[in-house]
UniProtKB/TrEMBL annotation:
It comes from Ridgeia piscesae. Keywords: ATP-binding, Lyase, Magnesium, Membrane, Metal-binding, Nucleotide-binding, Transmembrane, Transmembrane helix. CDD domains: CHD. It catalyses: ATP = 3',5'-cyclic AMP + diphosphate. SUPFAM superfamilies: Nucleotide cyclase. It is a multi-pass membrane protein. This is adenylate cyclase. It comes from the Eukaryota. Its main location: membrane. It is an enzyme of class 4 (lyase). InterPro entries: A/G_cyclase (IPR001054), Nucleotide_cyclase (IPR029787). One of its GO terms (molecular function) is metal ion binding. It holds the Pfam family Guanylate_cyc. One of its GO terms (biological process) is cyclic nucleotide biosynthetic process.
Amino acid sequence: MQCIREDRDIKYLHHPPINHCSLNFIDPAFERQYRSQLSADDQDTVRSLARPRFSTFSDLVVSLTFLVMISICCFLGFTLQTPWMVFVFLAFILEFLLLSPALLDVCFGSSLSPTLRRLVVFFSNWYTRHIFGAIVASLPAVAVYSNFSCHMFETVTGSHLFYCILLLTSLVHFCNFTMLNSLMKSVLASVAGLVLLVFLVTDVCHFTRGVSLADDAAFITAASTLVGNTTTVGPTARAMLSGNEQLRYEIILNVVLLLFLIWFLNREFEISYRLSLHGNMQAQKDRENMQMEKEQADWLLHNIIPEHVSNILKKTSKYCENHKEVGVLFAKVINYDDFYDESFEGGREYLRVLNELMGDFEDLFDIPRYKDVEKIKTIGSCLMASSGLNPETRKRNKDPNAHLYHLMDFASDLLKKLEQFNAEIFNFDFEMAIGYNFGDVTSGVIGTTKLLYDIWGDTVNISSRMYSTGLAGKIQVTEDTANKLSEKFEFEYRGQIFVKGKGDMKTYILAKKKDGATWD
Ligand SMILES: Nc1ncnc2c1ncn2[C@@H]1O[C@H](COP(=O)(O)OP(=O)(O)OP(=O)(O)O)[C@@H](O)[C@H]1O
């Protein structure tokens, strides 16, 4: 919510981007997206009553209920006529024809069979939706009109008033179907209302029949029966007739006011429906953007700090951990400085070559079997890596030394990569010395702003010494390391090497991986 509040696009809530006349979105692309959203959204997995498929279904249920009520009223209030019965029969068939796919869509959604889905998509398409919507919205009004007969206006039984009220009620149904274009619904309502207005204004059925036929014997008889006193028939009948006249004007006024109300409501409904969908679409877009930004931030963070460490940092803001029997590797391109020439383009070309080489090395970290191997950093032309720092992935290994074996395999692959690189890049013949050691280390993150993940300890120092005193194209290890890995790898004794701070140390050079050695 905070994010949306800060969003500059928040203005869409106050200044809806819609055309004030047509109510279409100003941006044609957005209008297309809105219309396609209304069509059967099979990708829609969220079950919400605000989704178009639920709105369509509820609109159709309301429409069917409305038609049932109007039909019952017509059935009870008027003499049954064949055109009416035929029409109502066809109207119900159409309602069920439209309601069935909508119901299936609501119940089964994207798991509908392809044929049914095609049918649902056909009905929910923008234009078909409007054609069928216009027909269904007009059904109650047409059902009332199909009962029309001037006969009901010629009696004083009140059926003409009932008819007008029923017709007014049927006009309200043009406010249903919120997803349809409001202009279309309002025009249809106006046409239906205008027909009644024409009847009333032109008085074709003699709504005010008594005024012009005051001396009509039948009418006087009827009026006298109603009033029960023949002597006062003349004035009473006139009073009634003037009442009829007044009623006519009242109904005309009601029709006009109702039409205004329908225009207003339809417009408001469409604006709010469009805005709610627009808000949803905008929120979805914002969510996707936020997700993308979060993924980018995570990606950046994981490039600086291993994933398991960054997960801890999100909760505690400090990280420091001791690890037992971790593998540490230093791989240095020992003759990079011999090639580097700052006088040529300020050394840019050589840095590009180094970058490419490191890129090739880093591709190895993406190989799934090196999941235990973590890049620590590059120091100039030296790559530092370690294995077994993630307790979770380490726990999943069948062999407790698997991460150490993996790191040794990784070191061998680094040498192969360099060989490949030398073969591909003309004029360069890089050589690499690799130092490997295992033991206890402490890992931690230094700093609160520009974080730096690193490992420290004697194990690291000795590993560094292994490469600095190592041989080109070889992997040098300590005696302990050679013993630890001897089950899977063969080593050759190199001799005693002087290590600063440690004195003379026996070192070994990797000969090869033992035939058939596996550990996964
Ligand atoms: N976290 C680390 N990252 C990079 N290199 C490291 C790290 N820890 C130790 N080293 C390297 O290991 C080598 C051995 O370190 P040690 O502390 O034993 O001696 P030193 O006196 O600091 O080393 P030097 O004489 O090379 O400066 C050093 O060259 C140091 O750069």
